[in-house]
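Example 3.2
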Amino acid sequence: MSKKSNTSKRYTADFKRDAVALALSSDKTVTEVARDLGVSPEGLRGWVKQAKVDRGEGPAGALTSAEREELAQLRRKVRELEKTVDILGKATAFFAQDKMR
């Protein structure tokens, strides 16, 4: 298991996957496993919960990691398109005004 070494405490997908596997297979509590790995218990609980959702074991309506990523990408795309529409609207108004003169 390799942890990314930076100050933002971001962990690689491999590290998270291995940590979840350890938490699920260990006789230790999630808190104990988290302490052993040097991660927050809340963070490890979240990873375990998301892993269960990704395996289809989560609550109804819970988004898988792939669905969360797709949603984030779509939201970014919508923001980009909204900016484009705004710019085009302003350009249209500018050129329409210019033609009136």
